Amino acid sequence: MQDLQPKTDWARIRADFPILNERVHGRDLVYFDNAATSQKPRAVIDRLAHYYLHENSNVHRGIHELSNRATLAFEAARKRVAQFIGAASANEIVFTRGTTEGINLVAQAWGTKNLKAGDRILLTEMEHHSNIVPWQLLAQRTGAELRYVHVTGDDGLLDLSNFEALLDGVKLFAVTHISNTLGTVNPVRELCARARAAGATTLVDAAQSAGHLPVDVRSIGCDFLAFSGHKICGPTGIGVLYGRAEKLDAMPPYQGGGEMISRVDFQASQWNTIPHKFEAGTPDIAGAVGLHAAMDYLDEIGRDKIFAHDQELAAYAMQRLSEIDGLRIFGPRENHAGLVSFVLPEVHAHDVVTLADQHGVALRGGHHCNQPLMRKLGVPSTARASFYFYNTREEIDRFIDVLGEIHKFFSR
Amino acid sequence: MDFEELYQDIVLDHSRRPRNFGELAEAQFHAHGDNPNCGDEVTVHLKLGANDAIDALTFTGNGCSICMASASLMTLKMKHKSRAESGELIHAFHDMLTAEQESEPDKRLGDLRVFQSVRRFPQRVKCATLPWHALEEALGKPAGGEVSFSEDTAG
């Protein structure tokens, strides 16, 4: 059967990304910082240009033709997002600035109304700061208490041995789908089912997953899910919050302003229907339109194929990295997403990243917005290589050669 | 290449075997600085002598080789310096890395002039200046005690 499937032409796909031809410090660029942000294909860049050349106007309130075009494009993007993540309706799609704003929106609007002193919020130790700090602020406002599902250690799995006990009294459970530091793919469907059975509302941080594997909110069974456009080949400044309609309906607004109201009087106002209730002010229209093009682009390749490619690169990188004596790798050995965190013996991550950059290889070094996790693992920082579908095994070979040179340079 | 100028033997030596690394029992002043961008953290421990000169200076913490070597070389350079001289050296070091116009660094910096090449690595300037910033904070404490700060993440 498999032979009947057309083989993906990854080299042709790579050619869709003009920036990958850049030279850095006199070398060919190897871009391995995709977990921070992805590069953009020409289709997305062209779509943005087309919007500004032919459709630009403000949305919703205009009567004229351009406003009509902008509104149609913006709302078409919302429908496309609903389809992209399997939402029941476009009304469940709120446009945000990114994952961080989506989580803050839920913490503010849902959390302030539904949490009180003594209630519990359950997170995991592998959450990004953006899925920790908004809940800390909420806990400070309401007197709620934060709890964490532990991470097992360097192998980067969630310790679910006492998950049911941890869920006791929990009103909100928030978890990342894929860890940006460890590459762990969490079983979000199972976790959300167990959390909901215990009476908790659930939120999934899909920043690292939405553009890398098929994501279906109804299959996951979460109440909220947030992701960013810029990590999935879309523009910066646009993100998505999915919320189940009944949750969004029952929530107070997040910010006040135009667009989010149905009627304003001097003393009080009535709110618009969802999702507009949560979109005060002029939205990032071009961003949404560009994100639409990015989703079309990704689905033409197929996110199942993208994830298989990610996993193959990660497995190859881990195999090659393990050839380096004393190198410490973080994250699970199996079912690893497309990124690898590591520490080179005796060399600080910053020095690794600075030297790799001098060889044209873009890595990230630091705490990856996971300071508590770093403290737990007992390392101040790690270096991270994160891949996407346009990366190749040859680039990994070059990266390993460069690491070898760095190792030699610092062992002199 | 640029990085060979940055990672000279003296930098690698001091990052691997930092001098004056450790707590200082008789310290009157402590200042802890961290760089939230990268997780580098340095605490300086300072004892001033009778004439207000630096009697003893040590540091603890962890960071990249640039940060550790900068702290180590700083502790060697600053020993016995008066408050006024220390201020001038801190200023000279900072200037060498951040002044808009690159110029010949202050000769009194001696070996520390090796860090001049950090200018070409803007992301790493704070690695080198963090210990100096901590020392400045420690010296700035009029009545003694402890101070903690974070580098501005926007810089």
Key attributes of the depicted protein:
heterodimer; A: 412 residues; alpha/beta; Aspartate Aminotransferase, domain 1; 2 domains; seven-stranded mixed beta sheet; 14 helices; 17 strands; B: alpha+beta; Sufe protein. Chain: A; 37% helix
Question: Could you characterize the architecture of this molecule?
Answer:
The complex is a heterodimer of chains A (412) and B (155). With 412 residues, chain A is of the alpha/beta class. Chain A is built from 14 helices and 17 strands. In chain A, the strands form 5 sheets. In chain A, strands 4-10-9-8-7-5-6 form a 7-stranded mixed β-sheet, with helices on both faces. In chain A, strands 13-14-17-16 form a 4-stranded antiparallel β-sheet, covered by helices on one side. In chain A, helix 8 (217-220) links the parallel strand 8 (201-205) and strand 9. Chain A is globular and about 75 Å long. Chain A starts with 9 loop residues before the first helix and ends with a helix. The model of chain A has no long low-confidence stretch (mean pLDDT 95). The two termini of chain B are 26 Å apart. Chain B has helices at 2-6, 9-16, 65-78, 83-98, 125-139, and strands spanning 29-35, 40-48, 54-62, 145-150. Chain B has one domain (2-149): Alpha-Beta Complex (Sufe protein. Chain: A). Chain B is α+β, with helices and mostly antiparallel strands and 155 residues long. Chain B is 37% helix and 20% strand. The A-B interface holds A 346-351, 354-355, 358, 365-367, 371, 374, 380-381, 409-410, 412 and B 1-3, 6-7, 12, 16, 37-41, 62-66, 121, 123-124, 127.
How is the secondary structure organized here?
The complex is a heterodimer of chains A (412) and B (155).
Chain A (H helix, E strand, L loop, with lengths): L9 H5 L8 E2 L2 E2 L1 E2 L10 H14 L9 H21 L7 E4 L2 H16 L5 E5 L8 H10 L2 E5 L13 H4 L3 E7 L11 H10 L3 E5 L11 H4 L3 E5 L10 E5 L1 H6 L10 E4 L4 E3 L13 H17 L1 H19 L6 E3 L8 E5 L5 H10 L2 E2 L1 E3 L4 H7 L4 E5 L6 H18 L2
Parallel strand pairs in A: 3-15, 5-6, 5-7, 7-8, 8-9
Antiparallel strand pairs in A: 1-2, 4-10, 9-10, 11-12, 13-14, 14-17, 16-17
Chain B lengths: L1 H5 L2 H8 L12 E7 L4 E9 L5 E9 L2 H14 L4 H16 L26 H15 L5 E6 L5
Parallel strand pairs in B: 1-4
Antiparallel strand pairs in B: 1-2, 2-3
Helix pairs in contact in B: 2-3, 3-5, 4-5
